[in-house]
Amino acid sequence: MAKKHVIIIGGVAGGASCAARLRRLDEECVITILERGPHVSFANCGLPYYVGDVITAQDHLLLATPATFRDRFGIEVKIHHEATAVDTSQRLVRGRHTVSGEEFSMTYDALVLSPGAAPIRPPLPGIDLPGIFQVRTIPDAEHIRTWIAERYATSAIVVGGGFIGVEMAENLLHRGLKVTLVEMLPQIMPNLDPEMAWYLQQRMEEKGCRFALGSAVAGFEESEEGLFHVTTKDGSRYAGDLVILGLGVRPEISLAKQAGLTIGSAGGIEVDEHMRTSDPDIWAVGDAVQVTNIVTRQPQLLALAGPANRQGRVAADNIAGRSSTFRGVQGTSVIGVFGLSAGGTGCSESLLQRLGWTDYEVVFLHPMNHVGYYPGAKQMHMKIIFRTTDGKLLGAQAVGEEGVARRLDVLATFIQMGASVHNLAEAELCYAPQFGAAKDAVNFAGMIASNVLDGDMPVVDWNHLPENALLLDVRSPEECAGETVADAVNIPLPQLRQDTSMLPQDRPIVVFCHVGQRGYYAVRLLRQRGYEAYNISGGLLSRQSATSTAKNK
Amino acid sequence: MAKKHVIIIGGVAGGASCAARLRRLDEECVITILERGPHVSFANCGLPYYVGDVITAQDHLLLATPATFRDRFGIEVKIHHEATAVDTSQRLVRGRHTVSGEEFSMTYDALVLSPGAAPIRPPLPGIDLPGIFQVRTIPDAEHIRTWIAERYATSAIVVGGGFIGVEMAENLLHRGLKVTLVEMLPQIMPNLDPEMAWYLQQRMEEKGCRFALGSAVAGFEESEEGLFHVTTKDGSRYAGDLVILGLGVRPEISLAKQAGLTIGSAGGIEVDEHMRTSDPDIWAVGDAVQVTNIVTRQPQLLALAGPANRQGRVAADNIAGRSSTFRGVQGTSVIGVFGLSAGGTGCSESLLQRLGWTDYEVVFLHPMNHVGYYPGAKQMHMKIIFRTTDGKLLGAQAVGEEGVARRLDVLATFIQMGASVHNLAEAELCYAPQFGAAKDAVNFAGMIASNVLDGDMPVVDWNHLPENALLLDVRSPEECAGETVADAVNIPLPQLRQDTSMLPQDRPIVVFCHVGQRGYYAVRLLRQRGYEAYNISGGLLSRQSATSTAKNK
């Protein structure tokens, strides 16, 4: 009997994981990886840092070579092999060698598609000019490095404010180039809500990055002096020695379409929970498939390496006869820019608004990464989104210099396990003065959200103050001398505790302090005395990010 | 009608949290905190760092003053007020002023005991000599600082290798003193398993700390030159300019006993899930109560600030008529020493062994805190304990320079939510090159444990190799040139993949590599070819910690 032959198309993340897992489950089958490019299993997430000289050698990005796969796993990797067609009736893959042009065909018993996603390149005038680069492969990164070196480039335009755009902007600034980031939306990092992305933008501006937000690109031109101009629909022009495109990615579905596989409503290859496509002999994994969001239960695209790896593992299990399933995604992600980390897990408020959800509540907080009495404490900014009816955690975002990924990971774990905000309040996390606090940031998030959920502390935000409200600042007079809010009445908390009779009973009272804690105390005091009191979640420290991004909306 | 009067005895952590929460729920009741010492709500966890001059000013340790409680919360704090008796039939607390000696008595409607735990001071000869210090209060820390300064102290003996002992040793070394740590057990940090605590001890030895492990103290003597000698039962003597006692703590139950409250089997005040004692008008919180371990379901003592705070909150809820409950503890803790972090959550293996549990399995791993291709990756050492029958996560420990608290927090969250190791494998955590990996350390832990759970990779450890086993080293010849294992046969993985016929079919084959990954591949290969193969969990990198601590057992 002939040995089972498994072909895997695409050798990065999902494909590589699938191949290695499959070998561990089945020593006998023949596994072939077809990789269009010159490298298998390279670190695409490291490319911006290679351009930025943070990662200094190309070979650091090569996680495995065809020899590794052969020696360790008995897996054959064919680089420069591009699959061009799948004949599902004959279970045949056809393709050509990308260098020699030679055609090939191979039969399979099981086929795994892991083609990834391709950078979006809108058909704009001039987009194919030299000097306009995408960042997907090691050769892409090499071309950028060479261009910068040979042209002594001193300025760059980055088009797109997502992960690649922001990371490229940071790395080019790091190399001493002047950078302008052009983005169609009024904010960078659209996976984050605007008031959270704002902190990242501020940090980048401090480091010299210029922004043209709300600017849709119209085209590209090369001037006689060799400068490249990005023109936008509002008529502006931005010039630089090179242009980086970071306009997001689109799943590579051409082969799947050609094979007659079902493409889902979100635009990716449709798979079941076993990562099997509409063809029973074909599996698909990674950025090219659409996945279910575990919070919204909606299909979506998500180009992240972690889920791709787990999908590869699930596909391998099923090909080997084990019935494992992929649980879906929650979109946990983080980015680090100039010492600031920002990220999220679960749903953003923007996403919930797009989906028309209204059964949710939001709280903001600004906890320290560890106790303030130990030297070096850093402030974080956090946003927690939970379901109003049952307190289920729907999403969380955080930004700060230290401890951000740690709290996001805890919150991601809570979302995975279907936790409510009460669970967050009850978390028992690591505490020593250098590492946290007896009430960790996650505990605070849970307690604040629980207070809202339980009706103890109704909250409002700076952009949605109740009509006819009295704005009550409960900070100390010394604090008020620093930053004031127009129309706010200042009654410090200790004074308020003595006497509240000067406050009107017939108007909503909106309380704020520096971060929201004394505001909470005041709201409890006032509510028990019969006032209709609200706390501004996140206090004065949330004001600038909230109001400056509201203008952008 | 008279206002409800709540008395809280003890103003640190649990007591302070209880008072503040109670005020937020009930504006009307009268709340009085009786605090024996001169400070309310101080940062006892910061004391070693104040001694070490890392925290430079005493007032950094004062989290709140009586004025804070009065102004913010309308709570009266009576410092220097020691409660000496409770008359439960009359609901009366009696006591005396610790400075004036004046007696007082106060009636209560609800009483909260938050007396904490006292350092253990065994009645050994010489224990009351000057120069022998405990570390519980700010005055304790001041006395040590003064003693060091006035005597120009250059050496210290620390007795006890738990949190306080290790933190004090670090801080005294940091100040330039020579330090010897004397500990009765064969290891430091008994909340960790010996092979995990070993890494911490190594680091401390590198920094000059001397250890006398397995040495029970017999007594203390002062020499004519003013040196203090610690004598041990094995006849050794250790001399220093001062002695720090870090022998653990014992719950302060004298008042509870006097009041006739039930004391539990673990030696703490017994409370129900609402933190109510056997007297319906008395609640108790913090280090003085015994709590239920959520993993073992056994009662235990646990002196940690986080749970104390949450207990205070629960007691306040119930006093205010809300029926909230305390979910129990899992013992999450961390310590930082000379740049190394170590901690655990859930059960240690030592604890499970003491309880006689056998339905568990252990895996070791040594993942990096982030991808190796990004500069600055640091190795962690992790131990995962899970139930063999259903894969439920029972405990986790980790040690390393970076990322340890983060992974422990995630694992603590999984334990809280009752997760299995499969959930760990499926976690979707923060990944960017600076922050993690597409397969995070937690994912690896879950995948390795799942492989064991599913029977794909039976594991053994260095101290329990099967009889008559063939020890098979699958590393490369270059690696073997560095460190070899006696009696091990070296067949590198690529060669093994070519041919396994030289291996005996009638003996267990125990495979190892550097960290366990290639060992896993080899085990899968061999098992599918009919061999009885086992992987040594954690590989060669686990060997030294395992074998050197086994000798101590």
Fold blueprint:
The structure is a homodimer of 553-residue chains.
Chain A: E1 5-9, H1 14-25, E2 30-35, H2 47-51, H3 66-73, E3 76-79, E4 81-87, E5 92-97, E6 103-107, E7 110-113, E8 117-119, E9 132-133, H4 138-151, E10 155-159, H5 163-174, E11 178-183, H6 194-206, E12 210-213, E13 217-222, E14 228-232, E15 237-240, E16 242-245, E17 249-251, H7 254-258, E18 282-284, E19 291-292, E20 299-300, H8 305-319, E21 333-337, E22 340-346, H9 349-355, E23 360-365, E24 380-387, E25 393-400, H10 404-416, H11 421-425, H12 441-453, E26 459-460, E27 470-473, H13 477-482, E28 489-490, H14 493-498, E29 509-512, H15 517-528, E30 533-536, H16 543-550
Parallel strand pairs in A: 1-2, 1-7, 2-3, 7-18, 9-16, 10-11, 10-16, 11-12, 26-30, 27-28, 27-29, 29-30
Antiparallel strand pairs in A: 4-5, 5-6, 8-17, 13-14, 14-15, 19-20, 21-22, 22-25, 23-24, 24-25
Helix pairs in contact in A: 1-8, 6-16
